[in-house]
Write a structure and sequence with these properties.
CATH superfamily: FAD/NAD(P)-binding domain
Radius of gyration: 21 Å
Strand order of the largest sheet: 6-5-14-15-16-13-18-17
Number of strands: 19
Length: 405
Protein backbone atom coordinates (compact mmCIF):
# COMPACT_ATOMS: atom_id res chain seq x y z
CA UNK A 1 0.00 0.00 0.00
CA UNK A 2 1.48 3.30 -1.11
CA UNK A 3 -0.76 5.63 0.92
CA UNK A 4 0.28 6.67 4.42
CA UNK A 5 -3.33 7.60 5.24
CA UNK A 6 -6.62 5.74 5.04
CA UNK A 7 -7.45 5.60 1.30
CA UNK A 8 -10.88 7.00 0.46
CA UNK A 9 -13.04 6.86 -2.64
CA UNK A 10 -16.33 8.47 -3.60
CA UNK A 11 -18.85 6.16 -5.25
CA UNK A 12 -21.55 8.07 -7.10
CA UNK A 13 -24.76 6.04 -7.36
CA UNK A 14 -26.36 3.45 -5.11
CA UNK A 15 -27.69 0.98 -7.67
CA UNK A 16 -26.40 -2.55 -8.23
CA UNK A 17 -23.13 -1.37 -9.78
CA UNK A 18 -22.51 1.30 -7.16
CA UNK A 19 -23.11 -1.02 -4.22
CA UNK A 20 -20.93 -3.70 -5.79
CA UNK A 21 -18.10 -1.22 -6.46
CA UNK A 22 -18.31 0.12 -2.91
CA UNK A 23 -18.15 -3.39 -1.50
CA UNK A 24 -15.30 -4.48 -3.77
CA UNK A 25 -13.11 -1.53 -2.72
CA UNK A 26 -14.12 -1.63 0.95
CA UNK A 27 -13.10 -5.29 0.98
CA UNK A 28 -9.64 -4.02 0.01
CA UNK A 29 -9.53 -1.55 2.91
CA UNK A 30 -10.76 1.56 1.08
CA UNK A 31 -13.03 3.96 2.96
CA UNK A 32 -16.13 4.69 0.86
CA UNK A 33 -18.50 7.64 0.78
CA UNK A 34 -21.45 6.59 -1.34
CA UNK A 35 -23.51 9.43 -2.81
CA UNK A 36 -27.05 8.61 -3.94
CA UNK A 37 -29.44 11.17 -5.41
CA UNK A 38 -32.61 9.38 -4.22
CA UNK A 39 -34.01 9.94 -0.75
CA UNK A 40 -33.43 6.29 0.16
CA UNK A 41 -31.14 3.51 -1.00
CA UNK A 42 -33.25 1.11 -3.01
CA UNK A 43 -33.99 -0.28 -6.45
CA UNK A 44 -36.93 -0.05 -8.83
CA UNK A 45 -37.81 -2.18 -11.82
CA UNK A 46 -38.82 -5.78 -12.23
CA UNK A 47 -36.91 -8.98 -12.91
CA UNK A 48 -33.42 -9.53 -14.27
CA UNK A 49 -31.54 -12.61 -15.39
CA UNK A 50 -28.29 -13.75 -13.77
CA UNK A 51 -26.02 -15.95 -15.84
CA UNK A 52 -23.09 -17.93 -14.44
CA UNK A 53 -20.72 -14.98 -14.82
CA UNK A 54 -22.92 -12.90 -12.50
CA UNK A 55 -22.78 -15.56 -9.79
CA UNK A 56 -19.00 -15.78 -10.18
CA UNK A 57 -18.84 -12.04 -9.48
CA UNK A 58 -21.32 -12.22 -6.61
CA UNK A 59 -19.28 -14.99 -5.01
CA UNK A 60 -16.12 -12.89 -5.32
CA UNK A 61 -17.94 -10.07 -3.52
CA UNK A 62 -19.05 -12.45 -0.76
CA UNK A 63 -22.78 -12.17 -1.47
CA UNK A 64 -23.37 -15.16 -3.74
CA UNK A 65 -25.28 -17.23 -1.22
CA UNK A 66 -27.58 -14.33 -0.31
CA UNK A 67 -28.41 -13.86 -3.99
CA UNK A 68 -28.95 -17.57 -4.54
CA UNK A 69 -31.43 -17.68 -1.67
CA UNK A 70 -33.60 -15.08 -3.44
CA UNK A 71 -33.25 -16.47 -6.96
CA UNK A 72 -35.35 -18.82 -9.08
CA UNK A 73 -33.16 -21.38 -10.83
CA UNK A 74 -34.55 -22.04 -14.27
CA UNK A 75 -34.60 -25.24 -16.32
CA UNK A 76 -33.88 -23.76 -19.72
CA UNK A 77 -33.94 -20.61 -21.85
CA UNK A 78 -36.35 -20.77 -24.78
CA UNK A 79 -36.67 -18.64 -27.91
CA UNK A 80 -39.99 -19.09 -29.71
CA UNK A 81 -41.64 -17.60 -32.77
CA UNK A 82 -44.48 -15.35 -31.61
CA UNK A 83 -46.47 -15.91 -34.80
CA UNK A 84 -46.52 -19.72 -35.11
CA UNK A 85 -45.36 -20.80 -31.60
CA UNK A 86 -42.45 -22.84 -33.00
CA UNK A 87 -39.35 -23.31 -30.84
CA UNK A 88 -36.37 -21.57 -32.47
CA UNK A 89 -33.77 -22.48 -29.84
CA UNK A 90 -33.70 -23.94 -26.36
CA UNK A 91 -30.71 -23.99 -24.01
CA UNK A 92 -30.63 -26.34 -21.02
CA UNK A 93 -29.51 -24.27 -18.00
CA UNK A 94 -29.96 -27.04 -15.46
CA UNK A 95 -27.28 -29.49 -14.31
CA UNK A 96 -25.30 -29.64 -17.60
CA UNK A 97 -25.02 -25.84 -17.64
CA UNK A 98 -23.82 -25.76 -14.03
CA UNK A 99 -21.28 -28.45 -14.75
CA UNK A 100 -19.93 -26.53 -17.73
CA UNK A 101 -19.82 -23.04 -16.18
CA UNK A 102 -19.50 -23.79 -12.48
CA UNK A 103 -22.54 -21.69 -11.56
CA UNK A 104 -26.29 -21.65 -12.18
CA UNK A 105 -28.52 -19.59 -14.42
CA UNK A 106 -31.26 -17.81 -12.48
CA UNK A 107 -33.83 -15.05 -12.52
CA UNK A 108 -34.39 -12.63 -9.66
CA UNK A 109 -36.32 -9.47 -8.85
CA UNK A 110 -34.07 -6.44 -9.26
CA UNK A 111 -34.89 -5.31 -5.73
CA UNK A 112 -33.81 -8.70 -4.37
CA UNK A 113 -30.37 -8.72 -6.01
CA UNK A 114 -29.90 -5.11 -4.89
CA UNK A 115 -30.83 -6.08 -1.32
CA UNK A 116 -28.43 -9.04 -1.36
CA UNK A 117 -25.53 -6.64 -1.97
CA UNK A 118 -26.92 -3.86 0.22
CA UNK A 119 -26.98 -6.10 3.28
CA UNK A 120 -23.24 -6.71 2.97
CA UNK A 121 -22.60 -3.02 2.31
CA UNK A 122 -24.52 -2.02 5.44
CA UNK A 123 -22.44 -4.42 7.53
CA UNK A 124 -19.17 -2.93 6.29
CA UNK A 125 -17.96 -0.15 8.63
CA UNK A 126 -15.85 1.42 5.87
CA UNK A 127 -18.91 2.39 3.80
CA UNK A 128 -20.93 5.51 4.61
CA UNK A 129 -24.08 6.67 2.76
CA UNK A 130 -25.18 10.15 1.72
CA UNK A 131 -28.68 10.09 0.22
CA UNK A 132 -30.55 12.97 -1.48
CA UNK A 133 -27.17 13.97 -2.92
CA UNK A 134 -27.02 14.64 -6.65
CA UNK A 135 -23.59 15.20 -8.17
CA UNK A 136 -23.43 18.10 -10.62
CA UNK A 137 -19.70 18.63 -11.21
CA UNK A 138 -16.28 17.13 -10.65
CA UNK A 139 -12.78 18.51 -10.08
CA UNK A 140 -9.48 16.70 -9.68
CA UNK A 141 -5.76 17.37 -9.34
CA UNK A 142 -2.65 15.33 -8.60
CA UNK A 143 -3.67 14.86 -4.97
CA UNK A 144 -7.36 14.00 -5.05
CA UNK A 145 -10.86 14.58 -6.39
CA UNK A 146 -13.78 16.76 -5.37
CA UNK A 147 -17.38 16.36 -6.44
CA UNK A 148 -19.91 19.12 -5.93
CA UNK A 149 -23.55 18.29 -5.22
CA UNK A 150 -26.74 20.21 -5.97
CA UNK A 151 -26.43 22.18 -2.74
CA UNK A 152 -22.88 23.29 -3.53
CA UNK A 153 -21.40 20.99 -0.90
CA UNK A 154 -17.97 19.64 -1.76
CA UNK A 155 -17.04 15.99 -1.18
CA UNK A 156 -13.34 15.12 -1.37
CA UNK A 157 -11.44 11.84 -1.61
CA UNK A 158 -8.51 10.16 -3.31
CA UNK A 159 -10.66 8.97 -6.22
CA UNK A 160 -14.19 8.84 -7.62
CA UNK A 161 -16.10 6.06 -9.35
CA UNK A 162 -19.18 7.12 -11.30
CA UNK A 163 -21.84 4.42 -11.00
CA UNK A 164 -24.65 6.83 -11.69
CA UNK A 165 -26.35 5.02 -14.53
CA UNK A 166 -27.25 5.75 -18.09
CA UNK A 167 -27.49 9.51 -17.55
CA UNK A 168 -24.23 9.65 -15.59
CA UNK A 169 -23.13 13.08 -14.40
CA UNK A 170 -19.60 11.76 -13.94
CA UNK A 171 -19.47 10.49 -17.52
CA UNK A 172 -20.76 13.86 -18.74
CA UNK A 173 -17.70 15.52 -17.16
CA UNK A 174 -15.17 12.89 -18.24
CA UNK A 175 -16.40 12.11 -21.76
CA UNK A 176 -19.38 14.30 -22.64
CA UNK A 177 -20.76 12.09 -25.40
CA UNK A 178 -24.39 11.72 -26.43
CA UNK A 179 -26.54 8.58 -26.06
CA UNK A 180 -27.84 6.62 -29.04
CA UNK A 181 -31.62 6.46 -28.67
CA UNK A 182 -32.67 3.13 -30.18
CA UNK A 183 -36.32 3.84 -30.90
CA UNK A 184 -37.14 0.61 -29.08
CA UNK A 185 -39.56 0.86 -26.16
CA UNK A 186 -39.62 -1.63 -23.29
CA UNK A 187 -42.61 -2.16 -21.04
CA UNK A 188 -42.03 -4.05 -17.77
CA UNK A 189 -44.49 -5.36 -15.20
CA UNK A 190 -44.74 -7.95 -12.44
CA UNK A 191 -47.92 -9.97 -11.91
CA UNK A 192 -48.87 -12.44 -9.18
CA UNK A 193 -48.92 -16.08 -10.21
CA UNK A 194 -52.71 -16.20 -9.75
CA UNK A 195 -53.00 -13.67 -12.57
CA UNK A 196 -50.53 -15.41 -14.89
CA UNK A 197 -52.01 -17.63 -17.64
CA UNK A 198 -51.52 -21.26 -16.61
CA UNK A 199 -50.12 -22.28 -19.97
CA UNK A 200 -47.37 -19.63 -19.64
CA UNK A 201 -46.28 -20.67 -16.14
CA UNK A 202 -42.97 -22.14 -17.26
CA UNK A 203 -39.81 -22.33 -15.14
CA UNK A 204 -37.73 -20.58 -17.75
CA UNK A 205 -37.14 -17.24 -19.40
CA UNK A 206 -39.22 -17.55 -22.57
CA UNK A 207 -38.69 -15.08 -25.40
CA UNK A 208 -41.43 -14.79 -28.01
CA UNK A 209 -39.83 -13.18 -31.08
CA UNK A 210 -42.13 -11.22 -33.36
CA UNK A 211 -41.87 -8.71 -36.21
CA UNK A 212 -40.40 -5.51 -34.76
CA UNK A 213 -41.34 -6.73 -31.27
CA UNK A 214 -40.89 -9.46 -28.69
CA UNK A 215 -42.31 -10.64 -25.36
CA UNK A 216 -40.55 -12.23 -22.38
CA UNK A 217 -41.83 -13.93 -19.23
CA UNK A 218 -40.25 -15.81 -16.34
CA UNK A 219 -40.98 -16.58 -12.66
CA UNK A 220 -39.80 -14.57 -9.68
CA UNK A 221 -39.76 -14.99 -5.89
CA UNK A 222 -40.22 -18.72 -5.72
CA UNK A 223 -42.76 -18.68 -8.54
CA UNK A 224 -45.15 -16.43 -6.60
CA UNK A 225 -44.81 -13.72 -9.25
CA UNK A 226 -43.98 -13.49 -12.95
CA UNK A 227 -41.93 -10.89 -14.73
CA UNK A 228 -43.40 -9.66 -18.01
CA UNK A 229 -41.45 -7.66 -20.56
CA UNK A 230 -42.60 -6.46 -23.97
CA UNK A 231 -40.50 -4.56 -26.47
CA UNK A 232 -41.46 -2.88 -29.74
CA UNK A 233 -40.16 -0.44 -32.34
CA UNK A 234 -41.90 2.83 -31.55
CA UNK A 235 -43.83 4.84 -34.12
CA UNK A 236 -42.88 7.99 -32.20
CA UNK A 237 -39.62 9.89 -31.98
CA UNK A 238 -38.47 8.69 -28.59
CA UNK A 239 -36.58 10.53 -25.88
CA UNK A 240 -34.48 8.46 -23.49
CA UNK A 241 -36.37 8.05 -20.23
CA UNK A 242 -38.90 6.21 -18.07
CA UNK A 243 -42.57 6.93 -17.46
CA UNK A 244 -45.87 5.18 -16.85
CA UNK A 245 -47.24 3.36 -19.86
CA UNK A 246 -50.65 2.29 -21.12
CA UNK A 247 -52.12 -1.06 -22.05
CA UNK A 248 -53.67 0.55 -25.14
CA UNK A 249 -50.25 1.45 -26.52
CA UNK A 250 -48.88 -2.03 -25.86
CA UNK A 251 -51.81 -3.75 -27.57
CA UNK A 252 -51.48 -1.52 -30.62
CA UNK A 253 -48.03 -2.95 -31.37
CA UNK A 254 -48.84 -6.66 -31.03
CA UNK A 255 -51.48 -7.35 -33.65
CA UNK A 256 -50.81 -10.61 -35.47
CA UNK A 257 -49.13 -12.25 -32.49
CA UNK A 258 -50.37 -15.74 -31.60
CA UNK A 259 -53.04 -15.93 -28.91
CA UNK A 260 -50.81 -17.95 -26.54
CA UNK A 261 -48.25 -15.20 -25.85
CA UNK A 262 -50.71 -12.39 -26.59
CA UNK A 263 -52.87 -13.24 -23.58
CA UNK A 264 -50.24 -12.03 -21.13
CA UNK A 265 -50.61 -8.46 -22.42
CA UNK A 266 -53.95 -8.17 -20.62
CA UNK A 267 -52.62 -9.25 -17.22
CA UNK A 268 -50.68 -6.28 -15.77
CA UNK A 269 -52.68 -3.62 -13.96
CA UNK A 270 -49.86 -1.11 -14.51
CA UNK A 271 -46.83 -0.87 -16.77
CA UNK A 272 -43.61 1.12 -16.63
CA UNK A 273 -42.36 2.34 -20.00
CA UNK A 274 -38.65 2.64 -20.87
CA UNK A 275 -37.52 4.40 -24.04
CA UNK A 276 -34.16 2.68 -24.45
CA UNK A 277 -30.74 3.91 -25.47
CA UNK A 278 -27.14 2.78 -25.40
CA UNK A 279 -23.83 4.46 -26.20
CA UNK A 280 -21.11 3.64 -28.66
CA UNK A 281 -18.07 2.12 -26.91
CA UNK A 282 -15.18 4.45 -26.11
CA UNK A 283 -11.44 3.78 -25.99
CA UNK A 284 -11.00 5.40 -22.58
CA UNK A 285 -13.28 5.90 -19.59
CA UNK A 286 -10.74 6.48 -16.81
CA UNK A 287 -9.10 9.88 -16.45
CA UNK A 288 -6.61 10.33 -13.64
CA UNK A 289 -8.36 9.63 -10.36
CA UNK A 290 -11.82 9.28 -11.91
CA UNK A 291 -13.51 6.35 -13.63
CA UNK A 292 -16.98 5.02 -14.41
CA UNK A 293 -18.65 1.64 -14.07
CA UNK A 294 -21.74 -0.28 -15.16
CA UNK A 295 -24.35 1.64 -17.16
CA UNK A 296 -22.34 4.82 -16.75
CA UNK A 297 -19.47 3.18 -18.65
CA UNK A 298 -21.25 0.91 -21.13
CA UNK A 299 -25.06 1.27 -21.21
CA UNK A 300 -26.45 -1.50 -23.37
CA UNK A 301 -29.78 -2.76 -24.59
CA UNK A 302 -31.38 -5.68 -22.81
CA UNK A 303 -31.34 -8.27 -25.59
CA UNK A 304 -28.78 -10.63 -24.06
CA UNK A 305 -29.68 -9.88 -20.43
CA UNK A 306 -26.19 -8.80 -19.38
CA UNK A 307 -26.47 -5.24 -18.07
CA UNK A 308 -26.37 -6.08 -14.36
CA UNK A 309 -24.02 -9.02 -14.96
CA UNK A 310 -21.45 -6.74 -16.59
CA UNK A 311 -21.72 -4.16 -13.79
CA UNK A 312 -20.95 -6.92 -11.28
CA UNK A 313 -17.95 -8.03 -13.34
CA UNK A 314 -16.78 -4.40 -13.46
CA UNK A 315 -16.89 -4.09 -9.68
CA UNK A 316 -14.91 -7.26 -9.04
CA UNK A 317 -12.34 -6.25 -11.65
CA UNK A 318 -12.02 -2.80 -10.12
CA UNK A 319 -11.29 -4.29 -6.71
CA UNK A 320 -8.71 -6.67 -8.18
CA UNK A 321 -7.07 -3.82 -10.11
CA UNK A 322 -6.77 -1.74 -6.94
CA UNK A 323 -4.97 -4.59 -5.20
CA UNK A 324 -2.72 -5.27 -8.18
CA UNK A 325 -1.80 -1.56 -8.36
CA UNK A 326 -0.80 -1.52 -4.67
CA UNK A 327 -3.40 1.13 -3.84
CA UNK A 328 -2.48 3.55 -6.66
CA UNK A 329 -5.90 4.63 -7.90
CA UNK A 330 -4.68 6.05 -11.21
CA UNK A 331 -2.86 2.84 -12.07
CA UNK A 332 -5.77 0.75 -10.79
CA UNK A 333 -8.22 2.59 -13.03
CA UNK A 334 -5.91 2.11 -16.02
CA UNK A 335 -5.76 -1.64 -15.40
CA UNK A 336 -9.48 -1.83 -14.78
CA UNK A 337 -10.48 -0.16 -18.04
CA UNK A 338 -7.96 -2.17 -20.04
CA UNK A 339 -9.52 -5.36 -18.73
CA UNK A 340 -13.08 -4.21 -19.35
CA UNK A 341 -13.42 -1.98 -22.42
CA UNK A 342 -13.10 -4.59 -25.18
CA UNK A 343 -15.19 -7.16 -23.31
CA UNK A 344 -18.07 -4.82 -22.53
CA UNK A 345 -17.99 -3.46 -26.10
CA UNK A 346 -18.38 -7.01 -27.39
CA UNK A 347 -21.36 -7.54 -25.09
CA UNK A 348 -22.89 -4.22 -26.16
CA UNK A 349 -22.51 -5.05 -29.86
CA UNK A 350 -23.88 -8.54 -29.21
CA UNK A 351 -26.97 -7.06 -27.60
CA UNK A 352 -27.56 -4.81 -30.62
CA UNK A 353 -27.23 -7.79 -32.96
CA UNK A 354 -29.59 -9.95 -30.91
CA UNK A 355 -32.18 -7.19 -31.01
CA UNK A 356 -32.17 -7.47 -34.79
CA UNK A 357 -32.48 -11.25 -34.55
CA UNK A 358 -35.43 -11.11 -32.16
CA UNK A 359 -37.32 -8.59 -34.28
CA UNK A 360 -36.80 -10.16 -37.70
CA UNK A 361 -39.69 -10.20 -40.15
CA UNK A 362 -40.35 -11.53 -43.63
CA UNK A 363 -37.48 -13.54 -45.10
CA UNK A 364 -35.26 -12.43 -42.21
CA UNK A 365 -37.64 -14.25 -39.87
CA UNK A 366 -37.26 -17.46 -41.88
CA UNK A 367 -33.49 -17.13 -41.70
CA UNK A 368 -33.61 -16.51 -37.95
CA UNK A 369 -35.81 -19.53 -37.36
CA UNK A 370 -33.25 -21.75 -39.10
CA UNK A 371 -30.13 -20.40 -37.37
CA UNK A 372 -29.91 -22.92 -34.52
CA UNK A 373 -31.57 -26.00 -36.04
CA UNK A 374 -29.64 -29.12 -35.10
CA UNK A 375 -27.37 -27.36 -32.62
CA UNK A 376 -26.43 -29.51 -29.63
CA UNK A 377 -26.33 -28.28 -26.05
CA UNK A 378 -22.55 -28.55 -26.11
CA UNK A 379 -22.49 -26.27 -29.14
CA UNK A 380 -24.73 -23.76 -27.36
CA UNK A 381 -22.37 -23.83 -24.36
CA UNK A 382 -19.34 -23.39 -26.59
CA UNK A 383 -20.93 -20.30 -28.10
CA UNK A 384 -21.63 -18.90 -24.62
CA UNK A 385 -18.22 -19.73 -23.16
CA UNK A 386 -16.70 -16.29 -23.78
CA UNK A 387 -19.57 -14.63 -21.93
CA UNK A 388 -20.88 -16.97 -19.23
CA UNK A 389 -17.47 -18.49 -18.55
CA UNK A 390 -15.99 -15.35 -16.96
CA UNK A 391 -14.04 -15.99 -13.76
CA UNK A 392 -12.99 -13.56 -11.02
CA UNK A 393 -9.55 -15.12 -10.63
CA UNK A 394 -8.45 -14.07 -14.12
CA UNK A 395 -10.53 -10.90 -14.44
CA UNK A 396 -7.46 -8.73 -15.06
CA UNK A 397 -6.31 -10.74 -18.06
CA UNK A 398 -5.75 -8.04 -20.64
CA UNK A 399 -6.69 -8.05 -24.27
CA UNK A 400 -3.36 -8.45 -26.12
CA UNK A 401 -3.58 -5.19 -28.07
CA UNK A 402 -4.16 -3.25 -24.86
CA UNK A 403 -1.43 -4.87 -22.78
CA UNK A 404 1.16 -2.18 -23.42
CA UNK A 405 -1.18 0.78 -23.63
Amino acid sequence: MTQSHQPKALVVGGGIGGLAAALALANQGVQIELLEQAETIGEIGAGIQLAANAFAALDALGVGEAARARSVFTDHITLRDAIDRSIIAEVDVGAPYRERFGNPYAVIHRADIHLSILEAVQRNPLIQFRTATRVVSLEQDAYGVTVIDQHGERHTADAVIGCDGVKSAVRAVLIGDEPRVTGHVVYRAVVDVENMPTDLQVNAPVVWAGPNCHLVHYPLRGGKQYNLVVTFHSREKEVWGVRDGSKEEVLSYFEGIDALPHQMLDRPTSWRRWATADRDPVEQWSFGRATILGDAAHPMTQYIAQGACQALEDAVTLGAAYTAANGDFTEAFRRYEHARIARTARVLYGARDMGRVYHAKGVDRWVRNSLWKGRTQTQFYDALQWLHGWRAENCLSQTPWLADA
